[in-house]
Write a structure and sequence with these properties.
single chain; about 150 residues; alpha+beta; Homing Intron 3 (I-Ppo) Encoded Endonuclease, Chain A; 2 domains; two-stranded antiparallel ribbon; 4 helices; 6 strands; about 40% helix; elongated; binds zinc ion
């Protein structure tokens, strides 16, 4: 693989251990892409996929598999934060992380405002994109935790 004209990629390590590029911008989905020239052909590949292949000595990502960010940060290219995962599992894991993230942000919102006014499940549901019964369940669980 040769890419003499390609700009070298430079990364910084964040506190989380994530590697973020400071030489190249991510696309609108937050992924870092790189174009290689392989045997005279231009090949475009997500850089985290390349990183995982390079570190595992793979020519290609196996069929039915995707590269998952264990850290949940799409631009990250730390090979230790990447793993191969079956496509069906990937959706589940990603949804779980999205849900966990909303749950955390909702809790912060609730804790910030609850002493000055009543924060309802309807409000949380609207703000964080979950249905009202789910938001009410969250609130009950947070209250129960505090009561201990
Ligand atoms: Zn990371």
């Amino acid at each position: 693989m040769s890419h003499p004209q390609a700009r070298p990629m430079r990364f910084v390590e964040m506190d989380s251990g994530c590697f973020y590029s400071i030489s190249h911008k991510t696309n609108q989905d937050d992924y870092l892409y790189k174009t290689w020239t392989v045997d005279g052909e231009k090949v475009r590949e997500a850089f985290h996929r390349f990183t995982l292949r390079a570190h595992n000595d793979l020519d290609a990502i196996p069929d039915g598999y995707e590269v998952d960010h264990i850290c949940g940060n799409r631009p990250c290219c730390n090979p230790k934060h990447l793993r191969l995962i079956e496509r069906s599992d990937h959706k589940r894991v990603t949804n779980m992380m999205r849900y966990a993230d909303r749950h955390e942000r909702a809790r912060l919102h609730w804790e910030t405002h609850r002493h000055s006014r009543r924060v309802t499940g309807e409000e949380l549901g609207g703000l964080f994109g979950v249905d009202q019964s789910c938001a009410c369940r969250w609130i009950r669980a947070w209250k129960a935790e505090e009561a201990v």
